Design the sequence.
């Protein structure tokens, strides 16, 4: 019985305090209310914005083009050289080839001498 | 972020903002500090948790608000400790818990009886509670939160919430009976 009364008292007390708090909310002055509204509006501006569809498509298309370009360049770099290209490269880098071109007249004369002899 | 989520967040803040301000004001006893705390809490909710379902907004918002209020108390008590230390180093007390000993409102016991307005009287008693007791009382009694949500917001066990709430009710009952 006592516990029942105690609970009843507590409920009454809580109700009384909550009513007073509700009253105090209603009594907040206009200036403070304006500040609270301004704070809310400022907070809502902080919400993360959703991406628009055209922008999303443009970004995806750009990313796709870059990916394709990178793949093409990468494939070309990794391709093995053809045998003719290798020969040409060897000729170009050999020291003898340059000597041949430098003394071309001498080698032409040597060949002609060999043929006649 | 779609328009429904944006709308639900706006509705939630519109419904809650003034009560949140009063909670902060009871804890800080200062209008400007309370406004700062509420604005911070609203901004964090909007920037990080706006996409959460509507039913999760209240516990999240009050958790942020509660953290801000406790940060405010910690900052203030650290400052006052430094002031005490510099002004009177002989009276040092190592067991002093600053959060539990935040000074009560400026009204003396005699003045309480003179307060005709019940709102002011109850404000005064609520300000005399410890921050944890006040938070437990406001969340459970005024906001109608359950024990589990209150414990999540206050970052403590459900048992602690019950203890804080019970002590708060006991204190308020005693004070209100005395003042009548």
Sequence:
């Amino acid at each position: 019985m006592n516990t029942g009364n105690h609970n009843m008292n507590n409920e009454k007390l809580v109700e009384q305090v909550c009513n007073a708090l509700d009253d105090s909310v209603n009594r907040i002055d206009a200036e403070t209310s304006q500040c609270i509204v301004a704070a809310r509006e400022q907070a809502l501006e902080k919400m993360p914005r959703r991406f628009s569809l055209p922008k999303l498509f443009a970004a995806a298309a750009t990313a796709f083009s870059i990916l394709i370009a990178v793949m093409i360049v990468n494939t070309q770099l990794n391709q093995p050289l053809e045998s003719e290209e290798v020969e040409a490269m060897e000729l170009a880098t050999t020291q003898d080839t340059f000597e041949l071109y430098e003394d071309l007249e001498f080698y032409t004369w040597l060949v002609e001498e060999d043929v006649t002899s | 972020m779609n328009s429904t989520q944006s709308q639900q967040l706006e509705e939630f803040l519109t419904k809650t903002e003034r009560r949140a301000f009063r909670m902060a004001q009871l804890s800080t006893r200062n209008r400007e500090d309370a406004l700062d705390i509420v604005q911070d809490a609203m901004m964090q909710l909007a920037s990080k948790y706006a996409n959460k379902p509507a039913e999760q907004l209240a516990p999240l918002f009050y958790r942020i608000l509660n953290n801000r209020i406790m940060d405010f108390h910690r900052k203030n008590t650290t400052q006052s400790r430094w002031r005490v230390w510099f002004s009177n180093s002989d009276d040092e007390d190592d067991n002093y818990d600053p959060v539990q000993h935040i000074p009560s409102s400026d009204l003396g016991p005699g003045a309480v009886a003179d307060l005709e307005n019940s709102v002011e009287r109850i404000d005064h008693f609520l300000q005399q509670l410890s921050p944890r007791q006040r938070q437990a009382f406001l969340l459970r009694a005024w906001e109608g939160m359950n024990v589990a949500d209150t414990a999540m917001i206050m970052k403590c066990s459900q048992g602690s919430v019950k203890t804080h709430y019970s002590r708060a009710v006991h204190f308020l009952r005693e004070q209100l009976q005395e003042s009548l």
In short: Residues 32 and 63 of chain A are 49 Å apart (CA to CA). Residues 1-47 of chain A form one domain. Chain A touches chain B at residues 9-10, 13-14, 16-18, 20-21, 23-25, 27-28, 32-33, 35-37, 39-40, 42-44, 46-50 (CB under 8 Å).
